[in-house]
Task: inverse folding
């Protein structure tokens, strides 16, 4: 083969491979991105508060916190988390991932500080509640504790 034709053949071959590559990308990447997307959601499923949050102590007295916390919870949280914290509020039902069951073990085994931190920071559909005073957020933690008993 003369050099010029061989070069063209190589070029055509290369563009063919490139074309196939692009088709593979079109066919292959979309499902791959989906799979990676789900993996990311699954990996994000565990939501950990930092160690510094863990040790924070609840400065709000228990009984006072319970009372204030309940009324805050009913207005700000129940639509998603449900009246008893089970994650069955009318707005919560449509969410994916669903709001946690605040009465359940996964939430109750966390420290007050961790819950306070999560309420303050929010994640995804869970709004950050730093518009509420710290005292209100600590009161909410007191109230969430009381949900554990109401199974
Ligand atoms: C718009 C719906 C919505 C509202 C309103 C809402 N939450 Fe949430 N909440 C969520 C969702 C969804 C999650 C799960 C977030 C995640 O894991 O990514 C969550 C998670 C949490 C968690 C962490 C549970 C865990 O995984 O350890 C706490 C604590 C919490 N919410 C408390 C509250 C409190 C207190 C309020 C009211 C001040 C509130 N939430 C209002 C949707 C909501």
Result:
């Amino acid at each position: 083969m003369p050099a010029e034709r061989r070069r063209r053949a190589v070029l055509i071959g290369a563009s063919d491979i490139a074309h196939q590559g692009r088709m593979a990308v079109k066919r292959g990447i979309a499902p791959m991105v989906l799979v990676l997307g789900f993996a990311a959601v699954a990996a994000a499923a565990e939501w950990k508060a930092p160690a510094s949050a863990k040790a924070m102590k609840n400065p709000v007295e228990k009984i006072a916190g319970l009372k204030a916390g309940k009324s805050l919870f009913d207005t700000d949280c129940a639509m998603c988390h449900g009246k008893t914290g089970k994650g069955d509020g009318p707005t919560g039902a449509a969410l994916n991932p669903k709001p946690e069951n605040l009465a359940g073990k996964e939430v109750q085994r966390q420290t007050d500080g961790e819950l306070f931190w999560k309420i303050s920071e929010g994640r995804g559909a869970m709004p950050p509640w730093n518009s509420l005073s710290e005292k209100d957020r600590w009161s909410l933690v007191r109230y969430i504790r009381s949900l554990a008993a109401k199974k």
Q: What stands out?
A: Residues 51-147 form a domain with the Cytochrome Bc1 Complex; Chain D, domain 2 fold (CATH 1.10.760.10). Helices lie at 3-44, 51-54, 62-76, 78-81, 105-108, 112-121, 134-147.
